Amino acid sequence: MDVFSSFYGLIPVTIAQSLIVSFVVLGVMLPFRILNFPDLTSEGAFPLGGCVCGTLITAGINPFLACAVALVCGFAAGCTTAFIHLRFKINTLLAGILVMTMLYSINLRIMGRTNIPLFTYDAVFTILAGASANFPSVKILIVGLLIALVVAGMLYFFMSEKGTSMRAVGASPDMAEAQGINVGTATIIGVGAASALSATGGSIMVQTQGFADVNMGFGILINGLAALIIGEAITGRQTILRQVLAPVVGSLVYYQLISFCLTLGLAPADLKFATGAFVLLMLALPNLRKSGGGVQIREKVRE
Amino acid sequence: MTTDMLAVTGGTKIFYRGTQDERRALDGLDIALKPADFCIVIGSNGAGKSSFLNAVSGKLPLDSGRISIDGQDVTKLNAHRRAQFIARVFQDPMIGTAPTMTIGENMLLAELRGKRRGFSYGLTAARRARYSDQLAELNLGLEKRLDMAVGLLSGGQRQSLSLVMAVSTQPKLMLLDEHTAALDPRTAKLVMDTTVRAVEELQLTTLMVTHNMEHAIKYGNKIVMMDAGKVLVEIGQEEKRGITVSDLIDRFHTKSDAIALQGS
């Protein structure tokens, strides 16, 4: 019973955390599913957002403005990845790794050290909610409203004339070009927007955890991917509404699962392995079923 | 004198220039189409038919030469800018449409070809009604399935959709790149009939690449035979009347190429 009561106690905190990470999951989904551009920039854009926001807040800048600057920096990082891929024909994953690696140094340079405490400074939450800002329910409300706005905005955009053309770029680049769509521009803006989302997630995260750390992005991408896959398993991908809801739903479920596993006694050290194994299993599942056929063919050949 | 709808002068494209593998895909190509010309392009593999179409669409920038559409020089415009004049149906039905998007969304993408795309809502009720009417003419029942993903359609249905998308905006020039080659004979005929109906009704200037000699004779008002990146023979409307497949092959004197043509 002790295990369950500690799990129940953690539910609100976990919900608040998973809503913030939803930004990153949306940022993973957009290039991967909409643009067909597997992108790893999030892993660098998330701490970039955190470091930029943390540094600006300690410099006395308004936290809202700090978040906005973090968003713009994330956008620039994503644009860089897309540009490297388009201009130099470098594989999307490699372009993402290059940008992510270079961002680590940039993040260190921005902060000047590996960690900045922010406990003593105003955050968007304390400005909006005053003394009650530390209650998880207040954070859930604020971040929840924000993420609802973002999801509604994305849903509208992807059904607009411009958004439809961006989706066409991912669905069939040749067709998109033949319909007069500038494939390069759409890709750069789309991947940029995705990294902007991840950076925004980072900027909100540092304000809830009370510090910015250069290593805070480590593993965020695989967490985001796991959350996305769970979300898509629940909502499906048939319509754009389902596709845009999947990241948020997935993030909410995934972090509760993690929290549950930890309270059951999973060692935190094993967490990344467990997450990786889970993502591998989910991605391999369609082919696992097919491999039965493959074995049969091989046996036939032997006969 | 009317202006040519399409004029290519001295179109040249050389791959791997200056190396041992140098290959002249287009070698001083000259061609002119009057408005409402329906021109059939034939030639053996490697004759430069695809390079010609890609050069016109802007996918393959020329090394030298000029291309103009309806009197406007488009030589330096890239493919997505030229799309305001050109509609294209590809050989592969998978390429010409966006398979993960719905029929309605594909129609929307085609309607806005070369136009400014804004932030307003895409598939409005008025547009849906219009798309339904346009698709109903195909008699394939697509008009009732606007929200169905295009990937679920058969190859023939998808090529028919591609065709409706291409003609929906009255393009100045339509490019058909062996657009029935991947279909079974019955479906190919259906798509071809729809093509001819649309070209005649809308008086579209059309370039059609085909390997099918019967089609070359039966359709269009002009035949262009290509070889080694040049126009080898041009057969106009008068001459085209009453011509047979063997006549065509005779005209195409290069022996090896004649064999290649007979084989297809």
From TrEMBL, chain A:
- Pfam families given in the database record: BPD_transp_2
Q: Which CDD domains match?
A: TM_PBP1_branched-chain-AA_like
Per the record, what is one GO cellular component? plasma membrane
Q: Which GO terms describe its molecular function?
A: transmembrane transporter activity
- Keyword annotations of the record: Cell membrane, Membrane, Transmembrane, Transmembrane helix
Transmembrane feature ranges: 6-30, 64-84, 90-106, 141-159, 180-204, 216-235, 244-265, 271-288
Q: Where does this polypeptide localize?
A: Cell membrane
Q: Report how it sits in the membrane.
A: Multi-pass membrane protein
Q: Does Secreted show up as a keyword for this record?
A: no
- Please identify the protein, giving its name as recorded: ABC transporter permease
The scientific name of the source species is Phyllobacterium brassicacearum
